Amino acid sequence: MTVTGFAIFIGGLGSALLTSGLLLPTPYVVLCIVFALGGLSVIVAIGIKREKRLNHQTCNPATINADKQNFISARVFGLVIAMALGDFLYLRGQEAWTNYWLLTDGQQGIATVTSELWSGHNAVEYNYIVNRADYTGKSGRNWQDPKYGNVQIGGKSVVFFSASHPWLSQLNKPRTLIEGLPVVIIVLVLEAFAIITIVNPRSGWAFNFNNERKTSSKTER
Fold first, then answer.
1. Which of residues 104 and 25 earns the better pLDDT score?
2. Could you tell me the pTM of the whole model?
3. CB atoms < 10 A from the CB of 7, how many?
4. Which residue range(s) make up the domain with 134?
5. Is residue 18 scored above 70 in pLDDT?
6. CA–CA separation, 171 vs 118, rounded Å?
């Protein structure tokens, strides 16, 4: 059942990211999110039930308190990892959304670089005009064309924007919907492990930060 819940969660969350990037009707995206939450609920329910059963079997109060302290530490660490990976997935989802529209109805214009961003990755902020309306964007410099690869503040660069969603833009023309798809899949799996760690540190799918889970498993046998 835990494996089933894990599979449902990964499948639903991955589908939600992809469908939001493809701009399918909102009900489809909501359905994928509900599907993912359903899988997570299965994992949570099994984790809570198993933890109660193990605590009931353990009669030593000192052991129970030690387990609680270890599990709190594991859950906090899992939460930190989940938040960091979740931010990465959120940004990849935004990128997929932008890439989809640039690949669908992208047009080319000229942007003026206004500032460099502290986020790194050669990122800059820029302004551009579409149909007499001003727009602001953030993107890495155009590494595809040496002419714009080192454009400085106040300089001009080619910009690619969506005709139907002109506020979506990049200084580089996207090649695919999701850049680095294998990395995104790996992060999705790690995100699921982090969530399982938060829900049930005893789970065989949880990150093992110490030897307590191994000890607990041997005790159960």
1. 104
2. 0.61
3. 13
4. 105-170
5. no
6. 17
